[in-house]
Amino acid sequence: MRVLGIDPGSRRTGWGVVQLEGTRLRHIDAGTIAISGKTPLPDRLRVIHEGLQRVIATHSPEVVAVEEIFFAKYANAALKLGHARGVALLVAAESNLAVYEYPPAIVKRTVVGRGQADKNQVGRLVATLLGLGAPPEVDASDALAVAITHIQAFRSGAVKIRTSVQ
User: Fold this and answer.
1) For site-directed labelling of 118, which of 47, 104, 110, 142 has its Cα 20 to 30 A away?
2) What amino acid positions are annotated as catalytic residues?
3) Quick one: average pLDDT of 24-52?
4) Can you give the CATH number for the domain in which 7 is found?
């Protein structure tokens, strides 16, 4: 099973591809789609859309796992995050890929063992779980953590894999 994990953001959208091979997790690739906050929001959303389309075309994931929106202190920030999530969901639907969503606390609990872990802890544990020499960039690390969470949910039987949008 090959999973594309996405950590959406209107300025920085992280993505990471993890493959389950038997009982092993294998890091395929990860990165960040970074856009200046000065770029108008519609243009940022287009860049995210195009970037995620390229990732899917390059890595052929079987499913997509996306981090859910957390409670944001500022409504405007939450709305922009929602727009970025919407683009991620749209790209998955355009590619006929099933989407699974996970709250940030579940992602942290799955990877680190506690839901209040900080980003550095998540990065270190992602690097360990995937056998990387160093933690990836923060947004990419978070996206890999989302992909790992989906694989763990699948392993535990908590989710059933759908091969396409239904």
Assistant:
1) 47
2) 7, 67, 139
3) 96
4) 3.30.420.10
